[in-house]
C-alpha cells in the first residue's frame, strides 16, 4: 500500500478499499508520483479538496469535501468528474465543464468566488454557492495530468448577506410609515422583491374579536384560491390553517392544501414552492396574535433553522412596525384630544367671563344708586358699608375683565376704537396712581413722559390695561431701588419703557415670558398670586396697536419692558379709527391694580409667644405673610414655640442655628422651595431624621405621593383644617420622640433579623469597628467580639480587591454619597467569599465624616451562579439587532447589560464598553420614580428581572451620555432556559418628538387648570363682605320701594355669582377626575325633597309648575348625599333655565329592577339631534337666544354625568327635538334593605335661646370683619374683632367669648391652626367655633370638623342660617 494512503480518516479507508483497476487510473501502486502527491496533499488537508485525474477527470476527495457532496457521497468516489454521480447534472456541468476543460487544455489555473451552483445532492435541485480554484497537476513529462480543486462552500454567507439586505430594507421602509395600510404595503413590497427567499407571501390581520382574519396584502403571483379576502380563523375548510400558528411558527406542506397549491410561485425558479411557514404577528405584551404572515419558502433551499430564523425575523420586523404605528396613532389621538380640550377651554374662559359680568353689572348699578343717596340718606356707617360692597365688587370685576380681555384678544373679537390721544398725559396719570404704593414699599417712582410731537392713535382702554399691567408686574418683583416709566419719541415711533431694579428674570425664562399662563418658577416676588395672563395680555394689546414688545433683564439687577408704537394711523384698520375723546381721569382704572399692589406689602409681624410645656419647637417656612401669620397663630395657640422664615435658604440657616423639633414648610416658594429644602435636610446626617410636613395647594393623590417620595414625613393639602394641621403636627412630634426612645430597642431587633453583618467603623482604612453584629462570623470565621477587640477589616479583603474598595469608599465619603461594593474577603479557614457591602458615612456639623455604617451580605452563591451563567451561550440572531432603527439591549438574569446594538449607541451616545456589566436601570432618568432604588422599585427593573416569563412594555426616560433626557418606549422579551428567565432582550424606541408635542399641550392644560382653581378662590373672597353689608343695609336702612328693590337685585345676583363660583371650583377636579365621595346609606326620596328645596327660589322666579312622584316604599342607595343632591339640583336648574316661564317640570322616582330611576322632565326648548350626543361634554352649551340666556358655564351636565358614573350609575338624555322639551333619566344601583334597626333620632331639645351672645369675629379682610360685626351688633350681640391668628388667640383669652366666627384664610396662622390652639387651650371645650371659608367642598367641611370647628359656613355666608345657628348656641354661663 502506498505511504500516502495509510492512516485514519474515512476517505483514506475508502480509497484503500476501492477497486481502482476498474478505472482508467489502475492500481494505486502504478499511479504516477504527481498523482500520489496530489492525493496525499488532498487527504491531509482539513480544507475541502477534490482531485480529478485524466481525460475522464476521475474523482478523489477528502473528508472535508463530503458535506458538499451530500447524498452523492460515497458514489462520487472514482466516478468521472462530469458524470451524474458527481457534478454532471446539466445545470452544474454547464458551469464547471468549460472551466475544467480549459485547465486541461491550456494548463492555466482558474477560480471563481461565490459561484452559484445548482446541486442535486439532497434529492432536489439546490441553490448553493461555492468559492473554488482549479489548478493543473502536471505529470513528470510536464503535461497536465489532472486538476486540483480547493473548495469552500459560501452558501450560508451569500444567503446571510442577501437576507440581511432584505431586513435592512424592511426596517428602513416600514420605519418611514405612519399608517397601518402604508406599513402593510411597504412590508409586502420589500418581501415581494425578495423572491429568492420568499417566493410568495400573504399578510392577514385579525379583527378585535379574534375570529376573522382579513387580507392586508400579498407578495408574488398568488392565485385567488390561495388569497381569500377573509378567513374565519377556526373554519376547517380555510385554505390556510391559521390556528396552528397561534402559539408559534407552523410549517405547512403545500401539496396537502389542495390542487391550487401547485400553482403557487417558486420565485425565480421554474419549480413551484413546496412549503410555507405560518408565522404569528404578535405585538409586544399581547397574549393573542394580531395577525399572521404566510411566507412561502424557496423550492431550491432546505427549510433549516437558519431559514426559519430569517422568516421569524421578517414577522418580528412587521410586528414591531405595526406596534410603532399603533403607538404613533395613539400619540396622535392623544395630541388631538388635548388640542380639542385646549380649544374648548378657551371658549369656556370667554363664557365664564360673560357669566360673571352679568351679576356683577346688576350689583354695581344698584350700588351706585345707593351710594349716591338717591334712594335715601345714609349715615357714615352705612356709607362705609356701601364702600366695602363697591370696592369688593370692583375687585371681582377686575379679575373678570382681565379674563374676558384675554379671551377676546385670543379669539380676535376685540372691538378696539383707535383715537388720537395725548399719550404722555395719559401715561403720566396712570403711573402717578402707583406713587402711594411705591412710597409705602420704600421704592422710588420716576416718571419721564415729556409731551410727544403729535397725538398717537390708541385704544384708550387697552393702553390703560397695558401700562397698569406693566407697572403692577414691576412693583410685584421689586424690593429695593425703584421703578422708572419713560415715554419718549423715537424714529417714527413712540417708545414706552417700564424699568425696575427688581429681582430680574433668568435668561432661559425670557423666551417664554409672554406665553399665556407662564410663570417663572422660583422667582422672588411680593406674592405668589397671579393668573399668569398679565404679560400675555400686554403682548396681545401691543400687537393690537401694530407695535412691538420686548424685554431685557439681568438677574439680580432688574428688568426693562419696551413697547414701541408706530406714529400715525396707516397701520391701523380704517374702520376702527375715531375722533379724539375728552380727557378723563384714570383713577378708576388704576384703583384695582393699586389696591392689589398694596395687599402685597408685608404686614407687621406678631412677636413669638412662649411654648407650653410638652409641646415642640416648630420652624414654619412660608413666603406668604397671611399664611405665616395664620399657621403660626394656630401653632402658638396649641402651645408650641414657633419660629417663622420666608424661604428655604432662611430655613437652612435657622436649622443650623437651632435645630427645631419639626419643620412645617410650604411647597411653592421663591428661591429654595419646599422640595429643595427637603433635599438639603435629607442630605445632612444632622437633619436627616428631622420631621418635615409639606404644605401644598396641589391637590390629589399623585401630588401627595410625589411629596412623600421627596422625603416629607407628611403631606397636607391646602386648604386644610386647623384641627387636621394640629393633629398631624402633634402626631409627627410624638412619632419623633417615640423613635428616639425606642431607637436602641428597634436597632437591636433589626440586627437580629437582618441577613447580614451590621457594622459601625472609623471612616478610613483599615476600618476598625465600634460596632459589629454576630453574622460576621459566617462571613469571615471571626466573631463580632474579635472585631470590637481590635481586628480591622482591611487585612481580610482580597489583595486584588483592596485598592478599589479603598478608592470607592473614599470617593463616596468625599462626595457625601452612599456606597455599594462587591468584593472578596478571606475566611479564617483559608477560603475566599464574595460579599456585598452597602453603607454610608455619617458627618458632623462641619461636614466631616466621623464614622461609616452599613451592612455586609454574603453573595458567594450568587457569584457562583453568575460564573456558571457565563458558560451558557445564548443564541441571538444579530441581523435584526445590528440593523433595526430601535435600540436593542441584552441583559443577563439580573439585568446587567451583555449586549447593545449600534442603534442604541447612536441613540444614547453610550458605547458598549461603558455599560457592559451595568444594570440597565442605572440608565433611567433621575426624575423617574424609583431611579434611586433598584430592588423592584422601578418598572424597567421589573421588565428585566421580574419573576414572569412573558414580556412587557412601558414608557421610560434614559439619560444620554451628554446628560440629557431621552424619552423611550420600552418592550422586553425574556430569554428562557428550562422555563426560567436567564436574560432579557430590551427594545427602546425614541419618543423625543412625540413627547415634545405632547408636553407642550399638557403644559398649556396644566396652566389653565391652575388658573381656574385660582380664579374661583379669588372670586369668593370679596363676596363675603358684600353679602353681609347687604343684610346690614336691609336691617338698618329705611328705604323706599325702589331702594328695597335695588337691595333685592343685588342679593339675587350675589346668590347667582356664588352658584357660578361653586361650579367653577369643581371644573378642575372634573377634568382630572379628583372628586372624592363619602358614601353612606342614603334615602333617595329625602334627596329629591332636599334638592327641590334648594332649587325652589329659581323655580318660583320662573313661575314653573312642578309635579313630584315619589314611591310609597323608600328607595335607598349607597352614595354621597351631598353629591347626589347636587346631581338632582343641577338637573332641576337646567330644566328651569331652559323652560319658558310658566312651564311644567315633572320629577319622578321609581324602582326599575335593581336600579332606582330619577326622572326630570320639562316642557322647555328641547335638544336638537346633533346636540343630543354632545350634551354631556365639558363646556358644551346648547344654542340659546339672548332672551332665553340664563347663564351657566357649560359644565353642569358634565359634572352630573361624572358624579352619576362614580356612583355606579348611568344617565340618559332624551328629547324629541327643538321645542319638544327634554327628559333626563338617572339610574342608580339600589342598596339592600338594612338588616339592623336604624338608630332613633336625637330627641334632645335645642339649647334655650338667649337674647345676646359674646362673639369674636376673626377675619383679615377688614371690610368683611366690619360688616359682619356690625350686623351681629344689630342682633344685640356683644362683638369683638381680630384680624389675624395671634390676635384671635389673645382676644379669646381676654374677652372669653361664647362664639368665635373664624375665617380660614388668615395671614400667617390660618383658621384651622387657630381652632386647634383654641381647642387645646383652657376654654377649648366651652367655645363654639364657626369656620368661614371660600372653600365649600365636602372635604373642606370634613377638614373644618377635624380641626375642631362646630359649624362650617361657605362665603358668602348664609346670614339667615348664621343667625339661626347663633340663637341655638348656649350663652355665657349656660355651658
UniProtKB/TrEMBL annotation:
Keyword Nuclease: no
InterPro entries: CheY-like_superfamily, GAF-like_dom_sf, HATPase_C_sf, HATPase_dom, His_kinase_dom, HisK_dim/P_dom, HisK_dim/P_sf, PAC
Stretch list, region Disordered: 1232-1251
Coiled-coil segments: 994-1021
Enzyme Commission code: 2.7.13.3
Lineage: Bacteria, Pseudomonadati, Myxococcota, Myxococcia, Myxococcales
Recorded superkingdom: Bacteria
Location of 4-aspartylphosphate modifications: 666, 1303
Protein name: histidine kinase
Organism: Cystobacter fuscus (strain ATCC 25194 / DSM 2262 / NBRC 100088 / M29)
Amino acid at each position: 500500500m502506498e505511504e500516502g494512503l495509510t492512516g485514519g480518516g474515512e476517505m483514506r479507508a475508502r480509497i484503500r478499499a476501492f477497486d481502482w483497476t476498474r478505472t482508467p487510473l489502475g492500481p494505486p501502486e502504478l499511479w504516477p508520483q504527481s498523482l500520489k502527491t496530489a492525493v496525499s496533499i488532498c487527504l491531509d488537508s482539513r480544507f475541502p479538496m477534490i482531485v480529478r485525474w485524466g481525460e475522464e477527470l476521475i474523482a478523489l476527495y477528502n473528508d472535508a469535501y463530503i458535506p458538499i457532496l451530500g447524498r452523492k457521497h460515497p458514489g462520487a468516489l472514482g466516478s468521472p468528474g462530469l458524470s451524474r454521480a458527481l457534478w454532471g447534472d446539466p445545470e452544474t456541468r454547464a458551469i464547471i465543464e468549460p472551466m475544467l476543460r480549459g485547465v486541461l487544455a491550456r494548463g492555466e489555473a482558474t477560480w471563481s468566488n461565490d459561484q452559484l451552483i445548482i446541486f442535486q445532492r439532497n434529492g432536489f435541485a439546490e441553490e448553493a454557492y461555492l468559492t473554488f480554484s482549479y489548478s493543473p497537476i502536471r505529470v513528470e513529462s510536464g503535461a497536465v495530468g489532472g486538476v486540483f480543486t480547493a473548495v469552500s462552500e459560501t452558501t450560508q454567507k451569500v444567503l446571510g448577506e442577501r437576507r440581511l439586505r432584505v431586513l435592512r430594507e424592511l426596517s428602513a421602509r416600514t420605519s418611514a410609515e405612519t399608517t397601518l395600510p402604508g406599513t402593510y404595503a411597504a412590508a409586502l413590497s420589500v418581501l415581494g422583491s425578495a423572491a429568492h427567499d420568499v417566493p410568495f407571501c400573504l399578510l392577514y390581520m385579525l379583527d378585535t374579536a379574534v375570529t376573522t382574519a382579513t387580507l392586508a396584502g400579498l407578495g408574488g403571483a398568488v392565485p385567488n384560491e390561495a388569497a381569500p379576502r377573509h378567513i374565519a380563523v377556526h373554519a376547517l375548510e380555510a385554505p390556510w390553517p391559521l390556528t396552528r400558528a397561534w402559539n408559534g411558527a407552523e410549517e405547512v406542506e403545500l401539496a396537502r392544501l389542495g390542487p391550487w397549491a401547485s400553482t403557487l410561485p417558486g420565485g425565480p425558479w421554474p419549480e413551484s414552492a413546496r412549503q410555507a411557514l405560518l408565522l404569528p404577528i404578535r405585538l409586544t405584551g399581547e397574549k393573542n396574535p394580531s395577525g399572521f404572515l404566510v411566507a412561502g419558502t424557496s423550492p431550491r433551499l432546505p427549510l433549516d433553522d437558519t431559514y426559519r430564523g430569517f422568516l421569524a425575523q421578517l414577522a418580528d420586523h412587521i410586528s414591531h412596525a405595526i406596534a410603532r404605528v399603533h403607538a404613533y396613532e395613539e400619540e396622535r389621538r392623544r395630541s388631538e384630544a388635548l388640542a380639542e380640550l385646549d380649544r374648548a377651554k378657551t371658549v369656556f374662559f370667554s363664557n365664564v367671563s360673560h357669566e360673571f359680568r352679568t351679576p356683577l353689572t346688576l350689583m354695581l348699578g344698584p350700588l351706585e344708586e345707593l351710594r349716591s343717596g338717591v334712594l335715601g340718606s345714609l349715615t357714615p356707617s352705612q356709607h362705609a358699608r356701601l364702600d366695602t360692597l363697591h370696592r369688593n365688587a370692583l375687585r371681582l370685576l377686575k379679575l373678570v375683565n382681565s379674563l374676558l380681555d384675554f379671551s377676546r384678544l385670543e379669539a380676535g373679537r376685540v372691538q378696539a376704537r383707535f383715537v388720537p390721544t395725548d399719550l404722555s398725559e395719559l401715561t403720566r396719570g396712570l403711573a402717578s396712581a402707583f406713587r402711594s404704593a411705591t412710597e409705602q414699599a420704600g421704592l422710588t417712582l420716576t416718571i419721564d413722559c415729556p409731551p410727544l410731537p403729535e397725538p398717537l392713535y390708541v385704544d384708550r382702554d387697552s393702553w390703560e390695561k397695558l401700562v397698569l399691567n406693566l407697572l403692577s408686574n414691576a412693583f410685584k418683583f421689586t424690593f429695593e431701588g425703584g421703578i422708572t416709566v419713560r415715554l419718549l419719541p423715537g424714529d417714527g415711533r413712540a417708545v414706552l419703557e417700564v424699568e425696575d431694579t427688581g429681582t430680574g428674570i433668568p435668561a432661559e425664562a425670557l423666551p417664554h415670558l409672554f406665553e399665556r399662563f407662564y410663570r417663572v418658577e422660583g422667582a422672588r416676588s411680593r406674592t405668589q398670586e397671579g393668573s399668569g395672563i398679565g404679560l400675555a395680555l400686554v403682548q396681545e394689546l401691543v400687537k393690537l396697536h401694530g407695535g412691538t414688545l420686548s424685554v431685557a433683564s439681568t438677574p439680580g439687577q432688574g428688568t426693562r419692558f419696551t413697547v414701541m408704537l408706530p406714529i400715525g394711523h396707516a397701520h391701523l384698520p380704517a374702520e376702527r379709527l375715531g375722533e379724539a375723546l375728552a380727557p378723563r381721569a384714570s383713577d378708576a382704572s388704576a384703583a384695582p391694580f393699586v389696591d392689589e399692589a398694596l395687599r402685597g406689602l408685608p404686614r407687621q409681624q406678631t412677636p413669638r409667644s412662649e411654648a407650653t410645656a410638652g409641646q415642640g419647637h416648630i420652624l414654619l417656612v412660608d413666603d406668604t405673610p397671611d399664611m405665616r401669620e395664620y399657621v403660626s397663630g394656630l401653632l402658638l395657640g396649641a402651645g408650641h414655640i414657633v419660629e417663622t422664615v420666608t424661604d428655604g435658604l432662611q430655613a437652612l440657616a435657622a436649622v443650623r442655628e437651632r435645630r427645631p423639633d419639626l419643620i412645617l414648610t410650604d411647597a411653592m416658594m421663591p428661591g429654595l422651595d419646599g422640595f429643595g429644602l427637603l433635599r438639603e435636610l435629607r442630605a445632612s446626617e444632622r437633619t436627616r431624621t428631622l420631621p418635615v410636613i409639606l404644605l401644598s395647594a396641589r391637590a390629589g393623590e399623585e401630588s401627595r405621593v410625589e411629596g412623600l417620595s421627596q422625603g416629607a414625613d407628611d403631606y397636607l393639602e391646602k386648604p386644610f383644617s386647623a384641627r387636621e394641621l394640629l393633629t398631624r403636627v402633634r402626631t409627627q412630634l410624638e412619632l419623633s420622640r417615640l423613635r428616639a426612645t425606642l431607637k436602641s430597642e428597634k436597632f437591636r431587633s433589626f440586627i437580629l433579623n437582618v441577613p447580614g453583618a451590621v457594622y459601625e467603623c472609623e471612616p478610613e482604612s483599615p476600618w476598625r469597628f465600634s460596632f459589629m453584629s454576630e453574622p460576621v462570623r459566617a462571613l469571615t470565621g471571626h466573631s463580632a467580639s474579635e472585631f470590637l477587640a481590635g481586628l480591622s477589616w482591611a487585612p481580610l479583603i482580597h489583595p486584588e480587591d483592596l485598592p478599589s474598595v479603598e478608592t470607592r469608599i473614599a470617593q463616596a465619603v468625599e462626595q457625601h454619597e452612599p456606597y455599594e461594593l462587591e468584593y472578596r474577603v478571606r475566611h479564617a479557614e483559608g477560603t475566599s467569599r464574595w460579599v456585598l457591602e452597602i453603607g454610608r458615612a455619617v458627618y458632623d456639623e462641619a461636614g466631616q465624616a466621623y464614622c461609616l455604617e452599613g451592612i455586609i451580605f454574603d453573595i458567594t452563591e450568587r457569584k457562583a451562579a453568575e460564573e456558571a451563567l457565563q458558560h451558557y451561550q445564548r443564541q441571538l440572531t444579530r441581523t435584526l439587532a445590528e440593523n433595526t432603527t430601535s435600540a436593542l439591549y441584552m441583559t443577563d438574569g439580573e439585568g446587567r447589560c451583555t449586549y447593545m446594538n449600534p442603534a442604541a449607541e447612536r441613540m444614547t451616545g453610550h458605547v458598549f464598553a461603558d455599560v457592559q456589566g451595568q444594570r440597565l436601570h442605572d440608565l433611567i432618568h433621575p426624575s423617574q420614580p424609583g431611579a434611586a432604588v433598584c430592588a423592584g422599585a422601578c418598572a424597567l427593573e421589573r421588565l428585566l428581572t421580574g419573576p414572569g416569563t412573558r414580556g412587557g412594555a412601558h414608557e421610560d426616560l434614559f439619560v444620554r451620555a451628554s446628560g440629557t433626557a431621552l424619552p423611550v418606549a420600552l418592550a422586553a422579551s425574556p430569554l428562557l432556559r428550562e422555563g426560567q428567565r436567564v436574560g432579557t432582550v430590551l427594545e427602546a424606541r425614541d419618543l423625543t418628538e412625540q413627547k415634545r408635542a405632547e408636553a407642550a399641550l399638557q403644559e398649556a392644560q396644566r396652566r389653565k387648570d391652575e388658573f381656574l382653581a385660582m380664579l374661583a378662590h379669588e372670586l369668593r373672597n370679596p363676596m363675603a363682605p358684600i353679602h353681609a353689608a347687604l343684610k346690614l343695609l336691609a336691617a338698618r336702612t329705611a328705604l323706599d320701594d325702589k331702594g328695597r328693590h335695588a337691595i333685592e337685585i343685588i342679593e339675587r345676583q350675589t346668590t347667582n355669582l356664588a352658584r357660578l363660583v361653586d361650579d367653577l371650583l369643581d371644573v378642575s377636579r372634573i377634568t382630572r377626575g379628583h372628586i372624592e365621595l363619602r358614601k353612606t346609606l342614603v334615602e333617595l326620596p329625602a334627596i329629591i325633597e332636599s334638592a327641590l328645596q334648594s332649587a325652589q327660589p329659581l323655580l318660583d322666579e320662573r313661575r314653573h309648575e312642578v309635579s313630584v312622584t315619589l314611591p310609597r316604599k323608600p328607595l335607598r342607595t349607597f352614595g354621597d348625599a351631598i353629591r347626589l343632591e347636587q346631581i338632582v339640583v343641577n338637573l332641576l336648574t337646567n330644566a328651569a333655565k331652559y323652560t319658558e316661564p310658566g312651564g311644567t317640570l315633572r320629577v319622578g322616582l321609581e324602582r326599575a329592577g335593581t336600579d332606582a330611576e330619577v326622572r326630570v322632565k320639562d316642557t322647555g326648548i328641547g335638544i336638537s339631534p346633533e346636540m343630543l350626543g354632545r350634551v354631556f361634554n365639558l363646556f358644551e352649551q346648547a344654542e340659546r337666544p339672548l332672551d332665553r340666556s340664563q347663564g351657566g358655564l357649560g359644565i353642569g351636565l358634565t359634572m352630573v354625568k361624572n358624579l352619576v358614573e362614580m356612583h355606579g350609575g348611568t344617565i340618559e338624555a332624551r328629547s324629541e327635538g327643538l321645542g319638544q322639551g327634554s327628559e333626563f333619566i338617572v339610574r342608580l344601583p339600589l342598596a339592600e334593605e338594612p338588616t339592623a334597626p336604624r338608630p332613633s333620632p336625637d330627641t334632645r331639645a335645642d339649647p334655650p335661646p338667649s337674647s345676646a351672645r359674646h362673639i369674636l369675629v376673626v377675619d383679615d379682610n377688614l371690610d368683611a370683619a366690619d360688616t359682619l360685626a356690625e350686623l351681629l351688633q344689630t342682633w344685640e350681640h356683644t362683638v369683638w374683632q381680630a384680624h389675624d391668628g395671634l390676635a384671635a388667640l389673645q382676644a379669646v383669652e381676654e374677652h372669653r367669648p361664647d362664639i368665635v366666627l373664624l375665617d380660614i384664610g388668615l395671614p400667617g396662622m390660618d383658621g384651622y391652626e387657630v381652632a386647634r390652639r383654641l381647642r387645646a387651650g383652657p376654654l377649648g371645650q366651652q367655645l363654639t367655633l364657626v369656620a368661614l371659608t371660600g372653600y365649600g367642598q365636602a372635604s373642606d367641611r370634613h377638614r373644618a370638623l377635624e380641626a375642631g370647628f362646630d359649624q362650617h359656613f361657605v362665603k358668602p355666608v348664609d346670614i339667615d342660617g348664621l343667625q339661626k345657628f347663633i340663637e341655638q348656641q348656649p350663652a355665657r354661663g349656660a355651658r
